[in-house]
Amino acid sequence: MIDPQTVRFLDDLAIVDAHHHYWDLSGPVTYPWLQSPPWLAFRYGDYGAIRKSYLPEDYRRDHGAHRIVADIHMEAEPRHGMACAEIDWLASLGEVAPRAAAAQIWLDGDDLDDQLKELARRPLVRSVRHKPKALPREEARRGAAGSMDDPKWRDGYARLAATSLHFELQTPWWHLDAAADLARDFPETRIILNHCGLPAQRSDEDLAAWRAAIVRFADLENTVVKLSGIGLAPGIWPEEQNIHILRELITIFGPGRAMFASNFPVDRLCITFEAMFSAYKRAVHDLPREDVISLFSGCAASTYGLNIGEASLER
Fold it and tell me: For the chain, which domains are there?
């Protein structure tokens, strides 16, 4: 049982949601995966319930009483060529716009220099994401076209070192050997691992292999992890297993390199926002308060260059 003083501390905790999405399906940006069939195979199963606009008022309704003091928008895979249009739409939201954003980029695109130039003109942008080619675990190998080993993809990644942009990596854990090589070879670029490295297989053997891959990746100091995206098909959120995964990651990376995030509205397919963040709080209730604050706000604020103010951290 959590003591009452800790409950009050957790209830009042300031949160920087390090990864969520907005999209307006009637707006200026198009999202093929949400708007036109054939529908993609999706890791949570049927995603028909989120194929509708998701706007700041929807997010506020979802997060409810949890005290969100800042938020980071993750690119929602707009149509190729619309990365800047997505950022400009976010900026047009005014007071309800996210505090920072990760923009879509195509590292192997012939127009990469133009992409970087345009994104650099937009102060909302702090990082970029391009999902590298991923293979099924049973087919996993190094060197596939479009992967982190692809020379053209890697040459594009090398250009990030001359910018202030971080790289958001979404890839299954069995490709983290390639990610570790990227982190080692390009130490100027911070890699933010999305969604815990996607530990979808949950046998003891699978989790041991996931952990070994995570340990190798986390050994590089320019790596950070987002504690998010750990639902399972067909839309479930197994709390006991997930808390084990979260605690493993916090131990491996340390609270200064790990940040909680919602991945809403995607993870709404598995769990409510209230239930998710309540579970996050239960997962770390026994840690020192300074570690809890770092996990819920400090690491994200530092990573994305946010000034959220000391007064907002506790009340």
Answer: 4-305 (3.20.20.140)
